[in-house]
Prior knowledge:
By secondary structure, this protein is mainly α. Helices cover about 75% and strands about 0% of the residues.
Amino acid sequence: xxxxxxxxxxxxxxxxxxxxxxxxxxxxxxxxxxxxxxxxxxxxxxxxxxxxxxxxxxxxxxxxxxxxxxxxxxxxxxxxxxxxxxxxxxxxxxxxxxxxxxxxxxxxxxxxxxxxxxxxxxxxxxxxxxxxxxxxxxxxxxxxxxxxxxxxxxxxxxxxxxxxxxxxxxxxxxxxxxxxxxxxxxxxxxxxxxxxxxxxxxxxxxxxxxxxxxxxxxxxxxxxxxxxxxxxxxxxxxxxxxxxxxxxxxxxxxxxxxxxxxxxxxxxxxxxxxxxxxxxxxxxxxxxxxxxxxxxxxxxxxxxxxxxxxxxxxxxxxxxxxxxxxxxxxxxxxxxxxxxxxxxxxxxxxxxxxxxxxxxxxxxxxxxxxxxxxxxxxxxxxxxxxxxxxxxxxxxxxxxxxxxxxxxxxxxxxxxxxxxxxxxxxxxxxxxxxxxxxxxxxxxxxxxxxxxxxxxxxxxxxxxxxxxxxxxxxxxxxxxxxxxxxxxxxxxxxx
Length: 495
């Protein structure tokens, strides 16, 4: 490992990217799944190693081809990117392990190698966004991951995925275009695309108006990609009609990577250099976060389709993340980043439980799962624990980040008190839509007498996700430490 350690940042992207064409050439579907899963697990191992190095030594820099930045392409991993790398690679690996059974039923056998190749390209693109230190390369990796994501969402048997993918494609393209326009404006003013160099050169430009325009384009573009309310219209259908394990993967990490880009550029590049941008960011994001939390939670209460219900829940949870960031404080950003990690655990466990239910329930609707807990006790028990974490019950990971968010809101004065009330109300709304499902599954009249417990191949990964929710709810030191360091990096108070 010592010989490979200097090259870990490059390996984080190279391993899945170079494995993708190999998988596309394979014809045996089981072998293609095995190679894809091995590559994802390797990427997860690299992410763990990078996290350990970041915790011990601080930010890692890597020069591609030994060309120093800003002339060459540089990679950089700090606490922010390390935290998200764990989420992305971990979610991919767990979803692929569970997909050994689920994807065989949902994807045509002759297309599975191409499907897995697209999965690896999506993984490589998401990892590339997190490790690159170049604003244009973020766009390149964004397009790689987006194009592969469209293939994954449309890869299932449900033809309703096609209009969902088209809407996803249009919105994603608009978001990426807005981002590219913003980066182009910055390049015209500074002559550089390297993020660290950009941060320095902005200070040397006396006219701030173009940078405010660039900040507006980038913020709107990334808000579209991250499904921030009210720019979330593509997300419910994309999550609903995608193959079940694809939803597990995307719900855990896809929007969070776009949020990472938004926070990285808005906080590091703009807020520390463009006067008053932090206030504008707070005024813009705070009300949208509150609306997302309340409106999306209310829609979820009345939603009958289980996957769509938790897609709307994801819109509300994104509101929690942007709410913490809009406080513009160390405590608020720590809570925001911590909720990225913990929400990935909770939502990953819930969508894995839904993938288990789908093995016996043709339509994932509330009225189709009456009494299902008597025939699928392990699946529904996993669902309950994931739901408790989403609500924020003590002893689960979801409680930790909500507690940190409430603490951060206390520091915001009278506005903070109102935000705490909103957080508590939305948690009660989460109780309502989780309880709807639990009540029907445990106490409803049996709707499916032929249901059987899910196979161990998908049940075991589900319970691994459940165990992680409990473990990080009782031992939150690692994500809290990473989130605290990441918040310091974004605010310019850390290394």
